[in-house]
């Protein structure tokens, strides 16, 4: 029950009072107009995504990930494809334990690394008991086919629907090596663009076939917010 209430409270935080129909990625509902939906999107100084450059080496903790749960479904909420996860999936960092709420995708990537944009980016959204958020970002570059993505998108849900997987997948199987990463303070990349989010962008990348990237983009479109100003933030890395 406690975990359910946490998920509900964080979902409310991420959605704010923002209705899905009030924002999008094109025309009058696009990112340039999100400030009229939530002032933070226009006035925030620690907004995400960013172009990761000028990072500074620091003595960072290892990410303690225990994603031992399963992916049981895939939801199309009209803005992204979002995985339904179950079981014990935790991230421990800064002396806090965060629980994985969901992961979702953006085509092309929202964050850039030294100016490079990837065809796909996955965001693993984690929350602690106070509702503080930590996002792990995984980039996908073109290469060999991803068996995980093939299984996940075998039945592609329509907008507002959830496709249940015939065989659940291991959440951990979508993660590359996570011992090296970039870290910065940021925000949600969608309205209400709430700040105070811990961002961890993994240096190791996954691979997917070009046809897989095209398939996901054909469903989600270009659902990437443009990069935001870094301002006074420092981007740190452990290597």
UniProtKB/TrEMBL annotation:
Signal peptide boundaries: 1-20
PANTHER family on file: CARBONIC ANHYDRASE
Gene3D superfamilies for the chain: Alpha carbonic anhydrase
Source organism superkingdom: Bacteria
InterPro entries assigned: Alpha_CA_prokaryot-like (IPR041891), CA_dom (IPR001148), CA_dom_sf (IPR036398), Carbonic_anhydrase_a-class (IPR023561), Carbonic_anhydrase_a-class_CS (IPR018338)
Residues in Alpha-carbonic anhydrase domain copies: 21-239
Enzyme Commission no: 4.2.1.1
Name of the protein in its database record: Carbonic anhydrase
Organism name: Vibrio olivae
UniProt catalytic activity: hydrogencarbonate + H(+) = CO2 + H2O
Purpose of the protein: Reversible hydration of carbon dioxide.
């Amino acid at each position: 029950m406690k975990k359910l209430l946490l998920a509900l409270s964080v979902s409310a935080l991420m959605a704010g009072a923002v209705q899905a129909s009030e924002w999008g990625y094109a025309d009058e509902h696009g990112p340039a107009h999100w400030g009229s939906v939530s002032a933070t999107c226009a006035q925030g100084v620690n907004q995400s995504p960013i172009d990761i450059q000028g990072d500074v080496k620091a003595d960072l903790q290892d990410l303690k990930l225990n994603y031992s749960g399963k992916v049981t479904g895939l939801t199309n909420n009209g803005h992204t494809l979002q995985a339904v996860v179950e079981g014990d999936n935790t991230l421990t960092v800064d002396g806090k334990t965060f629980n994985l709420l969901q992961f979702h995708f953006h085509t092309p990537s929202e964050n850039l690394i030294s100016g490079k944009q990837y065809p796909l980016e996955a965001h693993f959204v984690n929350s602690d008991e106070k509702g503080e958020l930590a996002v792990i970002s995984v980039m996908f570059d073109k290469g060999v086919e991803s068996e995980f993505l093939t299984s996940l998108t075998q039945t592609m849900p329509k907008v507002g629907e959830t496709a249940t997987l015939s065989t659940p997948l291991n959440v951990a199987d979508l993660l590359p090596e996570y011992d090296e990463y970039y870290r910065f303070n940021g925000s949600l990349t969608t309205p209400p663009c709430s700040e105070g989010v811990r961002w961890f962008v993994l240096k190791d990348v996954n691979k997917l076939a070009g046809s897989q990237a095209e398939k996901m983009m054909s469903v989600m479109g270009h659902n990437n917010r443009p990069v935001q100003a870094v301002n006074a933030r420092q981007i740190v890395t452990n290597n």
